[in-house]
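S.,

As promised, the adenosine-5'-diphosphate run. Input:
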Amino acid sequence: MIEVEHLSKSFNGQPVLEDLSFSISDGEILVILGESGSGKSVLLKHLIGILKPDQGTIRVNGKDIVPLPERKLLGIRRDIGYLFQDGALYDFMTVYENVAFPLKEHTALKRRETVEKVTKILTQVGLAGALAKYPAELSGGMRKRAALARAVILDSKILLCDEPTSGLDPIKSREISNLIHGLCRDLKCTTVVASHDMENSLRIADRMILLRKGRIVARGTPDDMKSSQDAFIQEFLT
Ligand SMILES: Nc1ncnc2c1ncn2[C@@H]1O[C@H](COP(=O)(O)OP(=O)(O)O)[C@@H](O)[C@H]1O
Ligand SMILES: [Mg+2]
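Predicted complex:
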């Protein structure tokens, strides 16, 4: 459960997020929709404490993370999978090594258990045949899949995805969106997806919020959004 209350953030006196309140229930997929520059990435970074708000509280499983020192935040971040917009794989590691890396850093799993776990998740994301490849040898869609596998390898119960479909063609966008949806349901992950991809968001979201210039201008289920008469939502939908 993630609960955000009255979150505000400015950069150099310029408001970027203004008085945001919303919550995400366990196992739910919330999509934060908004045009480029609306504050989606800034908001996601607040949820793992990379950025601190000027005002407001952010409770993760009941605990306000805003006042926590960096040392405590590291522990919280370990339990949160984060799919960065650019994939952010290590270029000098194979796909296998990239996904195994968090396990080596944070667990005492034996080699055989690591191999099993990594192979299983890579099979799940459709990369069983690419274990030994380096990121430079992968297509954009495959890089996103690998990054997604790495994001959930520590059995995170919270998954944050920043623009998972950006830079992908419509078919690959659909595939990665379906994959996120399937993984979240499978792993019972509480999931927040930042996106400007309305079509895929409508398909995978349990609930959505629409950001505009740092404010929530609409919220609801995909059906609520589709039936809204609001001009801005309709413009965004089409
Ligand atoms: N570290 C920062 N310092 C100053 N301004 C920032 C910083 N990060 C983001 N911004 C500004 O905040 C606004 C929202 O950015 P962002 O959250 O990245 O938008 P989105 O992800 O929705 O495209 C933009 O105007 C951006 O320039
Ligand atoms: Mg962004």
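Residues 89-155 form one domain. Residues 170-187 form the longest helix (18 residues).

- D.
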